[in-house]
Design brief:
Elements: H1 3-15, H2 21-33, H3 35-62, H4 71-101, H5 107-136, H6 141-144
Helix pairs in contact: 1-2, 1-3, 2-3
């Protein structure tokens, strides 16, 4: 490995504070041999200090806790969604019934509509089952409360 490549590796480790005592001696020897490297290392350390300050500022702003709905608000939202789904399913059921009893609708279209509706129902029930099982076995339930 060339002196330049070794210096670059040691300089990056020094900036991150990862040098062993032997590596620190080796870096000091390389810096003594070329004073321009010492100025370059100081620039690297200044950049590292600035990026660390930005990282700390971002981390501090992330500590602001998100707004969590109250139990009453959660219950209201749950009730609203349940009512919406019940209404949609009722309307869908009525439309499907009307579609099936209409005498002018061809039998092939009724069969296709029945297959389509069955597929939608199975998909909905599968998604609902997955969601309910996910809620039941959520490993982060205690953390989110």
């Amino acid at each position: 490995m060339s002196d330049q490549a070794r210096y670059e590796a040691l300089a990056m480790a020094a900036v991150d504070g990862l040098l062993s005592p032997d590596e620190r001696k080796e870096l000091d020897a390389l810096l003594a041999a070329d004073p321009e490297r010492a100025a370059e290392l100081a620039d690297f350390e200044a950049v590292k200090m600035n990026t660390d300050a930005i990282r700390d500022r971002i981390a501090a702003s992330a500590l602001i806790e998100p707004i969590r709905p109250t139990p009453v608000a959660k219950a209201g939202l749950t009730l609203a969604f349940v009512l919406i789904w019940m209404g949609l399913l009722g309307l869908y059921g009525f439309a499907a019934y009307q579609f099936m009893v209409e005498p002018k609708t061809p039998v092939a279209v009724k069969i296709a509509g029945g297959i389509f509706g069955s597929g939608l129902l199975i998909l909905f029930l599968s998604a609902l089952r997955t969601r309910l099982r996910g809620l039941k076995h959520d490993p982060y339930r205690e953390i989110d409360r």
